Structures are given as structure tokens and as C-alpha cells.
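Slide 14.
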Amino acid sequence: MGKYISVIGGLVAILIGLIGLIKCWDLFVKALLATVPSILILGGLIALAAGVSEIKDAAKTSKEESKEEKK
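Slide 15: predicted structure.
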């Protein structure tokens, strides 16, 4: 019985969400316009940090390999 209640609750939540989205479409678009650049900046910072970390790891690995070859 609990499975059916969660399905009905989910459908009700979707319906209320759609009604709210239709009534507040302008606010939704403004929210997207505000959040998309922020997400892009955050994603770019994460990608930059990952790339720098990868470059550092590659440099460290090549230094270790060159030390082993000299021995």
C-alpha cells in the first residue's frame, strides 16, 4: 500500500510543480539566467583545478621515471 501512496504523492507533486512553473514562468527564466553563468564558472574552476592537478601528477611521474633510469 505504501508504494501506491508514494506514486500518488509523486504525481501530485509533479502537478503542483507544473502549475507553479506555468504561473511563475518569468521568475523561472530569471532564475535560470542567474544560475547558469554561476554553474559555468564553478564548473570551469573545477575543470581548471583537475587539469592543473593532472599536469602536476604527470610532471611528478616523469621526474620519478627519469630518476629510476639514471640508477
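Speaker note: The mean pLDDT is 91.
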